[in-house]
Amino acid sequence: MDVVVQVSPATDILSWVLVVAHRVGNEGVAIFFMNLWAIWLSGNMLVFEGIRRGAREIVDMAGRLLTDYTTALQDFKPTIDSMQIKWHPPPLGSFKANVDGALFLESRSAGIGVIVRDSAGRVIATTAKHIVGDFPANVVEALGVHFAVQFVRDLGLQSIMVGGDNLEVINAINSKEIDLTALGLILDDVQDTTIEHYGTITFGHTRRERNKVAHGLARNAQNVEGSMVFGSCDGLLCIVFDMNTAVLWNPSTREYKRLPVPCSSGRKSSLFGYGFGYDSSIDDYKVVRICPSARQGVPMGAELYTLKTNSWKKIEGITFDVLFMDRLDRGSFANGAMYWWVIAFTFSKDEYDSSSKILRFDLKAEKFKLLPPPRHIPKNLLMNLGVIAGFLCTGRDNHGSGIKLWRLKDDGVKQMWSKGVAIGVNRCVLPICYPICYPKMGEVLMHIIRKGQDNIVLCLCNLDDTTLKTQLIHVPEFWSDATTYVESLVSPNQCWEEKVHLEL
């Protein structure tokens, strides 16, 4: 087959080759260039060796060389000596905890993974944790080390080597320098926990290739679904088992009701806020579900479940977005409304602002409202809320001298914060302290994290002399919660069953 290609003076060699390839295919181009090379080789043989080849010989030589080349390519199977990556075990009788973190930018959250092995390489325990917030990578790694230290301590292990692949974090832990950044404060708490550990804990750098299992656990953390009680009302508990599965349960009667799937179940976010309360105006229980948008300039989504209708409906008219403290944030029920402490993102055509707010949802009016936090609270600080004696309350560190309490007076029209007492509980880790209930007059049960001690504790505080009366319970798990409920015979199925009978 003869191929004629007309080439203009401005056509470069690459353009010409592309034209030829289009006409005759890649095989034709290979034959053409092999013939060119054979002509060049024959010219050199004539000049330097005096050997003359005819046109037929040059073409035959090019064909043989091309055949040899293509055959060699088919038979060639390169072998690459991969670098052997070995996990280095700890000394006999010791244990090694590998830890890693992963960022999930879309959901503004992160994952932590930990795997613990003994000196023979046997897996002792693994865990993964999903945390919420826009954290830098080194802060996530530091939180991971903090979580790993608490995890191995709770396992009762004594001689521990903690390995992570972030060299900056490992060097900072082993450094004696004072660091007042967020990273430094986290690692300072790690060092305090290490000092108080009854065994020995050392920290070392692990190459990323040797940390793949911990990294895999961290990546999978956003798929780990636990359970959380996010509301208590009249003896009914509202429990979330994953982001879209919730039940109402009466522990006294052991009766429960599974809620239908919410309307926004397909929304791509791992941040959800829930609230559970009673609407006395219609004698019905309601569940509020809030889904932040995770996109700047887009309002949050929200929907409402009512027990009598056994269905969800969307709540309209929202003009702001929020960021919760926890992945599944529980609202506090008081004064006929639900409350959450949030970072609220308000936006208009001209501005976009964020600040700490109290998100209020009126169960009767079914409307949201943003309230200011107590005075002198930093602009973007997230704190916890609690309810005692029917009042919404919150607490925070009082400059190292204890916990200062506030309570909200809310008559449905006007809301106002009033400062309460200061309780002498020192070394509290902010902002995770809040009142749970009044067991009796003059006392308050507090949920507190205490720095450098046993982490989460439930404390009974005396309001008369503002002192810590009794430290009741030590909770080993860092991410824990507490709630109260009263024994009752309220049925989670009663309202729905009565409605069905009437319709029949």
TrEMBL record:
Domain RNase H type-1, residue spans: 98-221
GO molecular function: nucleic acid binding; RNA-DNA hybrid ribonuclease activity
Pfam families: FBA_1 (PF07734), RVT_3 (PF13456)
F-box associated beta-propeller type domain: residues covered: 222-491
SUPFAM superfamilies: Ribonuclease H-like
Domain of life, per lineage: Eukaryota
Annotated PANTHER family: BNAC02G40300D PROTEIN, POLYNUCLEOTIDYL TRANSFERASE, RIBONUCLEASE H-LIKE SUPERFAMILY PROTEIN
NCBIfam families: F_box_assoc_1
Name of the molecule in the record: RNase H type-1 domain-containing protein
Organism for this UniProt entry: Liquidambar formosana
